[in-house]
What does this fold into?
Amino acid sequence: MSEAALVTGAASGIGRAVAERLVEDGWNVLAVDLEPDPDGPGEPLAADLTTREGNREAVDAARRRFGRLDAIVPNAGFQHVAPIESFDEDRWDALLALLLTSPFLLARYAWPALRASGNGRLVVVASVHGLVASPFKAGYVAAKHGVLGLVKTLALEGAEAGISCTAVCPGYVRTPLVEKQIPDQAKAHGVSEEEALEDVILAPHAIKRLIEPAEVAGVVAFLASEGGASFTGVPVTMDQGWTAR
It folds into this structure.
């Protein structure tokens, strides 16, 4: 029987690339999104992952459809860019709900299935912002730092059951989320959108290019495979030299 994975934020960007890659590798994939693409990879499921009910339904749906659940890839997310004195409080709550609480809930509800797998994997798509900070991103940076702590804790809890937990930490990836940041960053820094891309977004990269979603998907697929079994409790960094500074 094919292994089964649950991938969130699977309608576009990194999540879609991950779902496509896992399907290519022979996995059964439940592709979860607030507005899933019925023509996308895997089997689509609409779920609001800012709620407990949405996260529980995602796990239950995967187990119903596939009879097992071997890997979870929490990837869903969004960005909000604003100075702290005007940072919207509701956006803060939503960021933490989706980027930190959802991975916790997915792991909590899926833990018995991951244990039964004997080879369970939790691969969180985090960010280089789980390791470093940037101004005007209080909610995103706080949540991504938090999810790395969650991964470390779950790696220790899951070790005896053969469950490994990692966090992939890419720099800027060519996704709708990054493209939507450009005007926000331009406004926050008082520069043009072109200057925001060149001088703000790509400034920390030693290699001055955006990472492609398929590159991140390849790393996730490796971590979910037999070859990735020794990786647990760690961030797997692919940041174009950002944190080498």
